[in-house]
Amino acid sequence: MTHQQYMQMALDLAARGSYSTAPNPQVGCIIVADGQVVGRGWHERPGEPHAEVYALREAGALASGATAYVTLEPCSHFGRTPPCADALIDAAISRVVIAQLDPNPLVAGRGVEKLKAAGIAVEVGVLESAARTMNCGFRSRMERGRPWLRVKLAATVDGRTALANGASQWITGTAARADVHDFRARSGAILSTARTVLRDNARLTARTERCEQQPLRVIIDSQGLLEPTASLFQESSPILLVQTAATPDRAVQWPQHVEVWTAPSTERRVDLQALVAELGRRQINDVWTECGAELAGSLMQEGLIDEWVIYVAPKFFGATGRGLVEIPIFSNIADAPKCIFTDVRQIGADIRIIAKPDTG
Ligand code: AOF
Ligand code: ZN
How far apart (Å, rounded) are the C-alpha atoms in residues 4 and 97? Predict the structure, then answer.
């Protein structure tokens, strides 16, 4: 087996944490002695042992002289758990192969230094790109102070999201909807607007067995349109209601799980940069946005969209239907915002396109 194959095993283990590790990264570890995998581990939940600890436990005395494959640089700091670099050194591991360095400023290369100082051979960069993609949310928060932001959209083949009269619910089929719930479950927050909530009577919870912790529901209601009787508030998972200083004060008694946050604003519009920075401060790694054309357009113009997740349904709404994003009119095709398709697949009867902005 090659370095890459062992690292792929470690990545597969890391992925098991995708519903539960946030705000921590997903990390997997494999320990190999004389060509045999003798230890396996992955990080499951914040506060619980790191991947290396589980793998070392399984390997026991066989860890001595063995090689460890880890998808993230072993930590060097005392957080909720002691440093993994020390645990590897104490177990007399002789070589550590790492996919990516830890962007956490508390670690950031110090784990590697510690291992090298103890005479351990270290190699960094095996399957690095896959490991970085897996932790794009954690990396984004560590490196930019804000979460990785995905925008979900659903349209017909002719790119329409609603009929001219506004009717829009259930464009896509059940498999695509299940896929959406899976994305919700893997996100720290769901971002939406009062308008979308009212239009769809949305609850914005992750309805899948795999969901370990319901995401924070972040609802922009700068005009004060929502009433506590909406279905959204009948679900007990936390809600951050985003208003501005100009939102009409209606002296509403919100339920306990609702926090009202007054966002910085310009001309009564929420400052979206400030909002995502606030979500970063609240340790949100991944934001899943389900909104209308207006917020999608604003996020796009603010350069805040990291990934588009677009479901295309096999039906036509016709030329009078509504489009996906509201952006200023332009007359030159060269001015059209562009994106790059990174993954295209069929989900049930629909197609799912994952794209990232093409910033040229
Ligand atoms: C590793 N292996 O499996 C993980 C690491 O609060 P703590 O103690 O859990 O520390 C969390 C930080 O540790 C996290 O921000 C990241 O830098 C690192 N995560 N490191 O060596 C692991 N999950
Ligand atoms: Zn660690």
Answer: 10
Q: What is the mean pLDDT of residues 43-47?
A: 95
At residue 79 the predicted structure's pLDDT band, cuts being 50, 70 and 90, is confident
Residue 200's pLDDT is what? 85
Q: Which of 109, 108, 114 is nearest to 89 (CA)?
A: 114
pLDDT tens-place string over residues 192-231: 999 999 988 899 999 999 999 999 999 999 999 999 999 9
Judge if ipTM > 0.85.
Answer: yes
For this structure, is 52 an active site residue? yes
Pick the CATH number of 3-135 from 3.90.980.10, 1.10.3660.10, 3.40.140.10, 3.20.20.30: 3.40.140.10
Active-site residue, from 44, 52, 278, 307: 52
> Probe ligand 1: pick from 42, 48, 50, max atoms within 8 Å of CB?
50
In ligand 1, the atom with minimum distance to the C-alpha of 26 is 23
Q: How far apart are the first and last CA of the chain?
A: 39
Q: Do residues 26 and 134 lie in contact, with contact meaning Cβ atoms separated by under 8 Å? A: yes
CB of 265 closer than 6 A to ligand 1? no
The pTM (predicted TM-score) of the whole model is: 0.94
The CATH-assigned architecture of domain 145-358 is 3-Layer(aba) Sandwich (3.40)
Is 294 annotated as belonging to a binding site? yes
Q: Which atom of ligand 1 is nearest to the CA of 29?
A: 3
Q: How far apart are CA 187 and CA 341, in angstroms?
A: 21
Residue with the smallest CA separation from ligand 1 atom 21 is 74
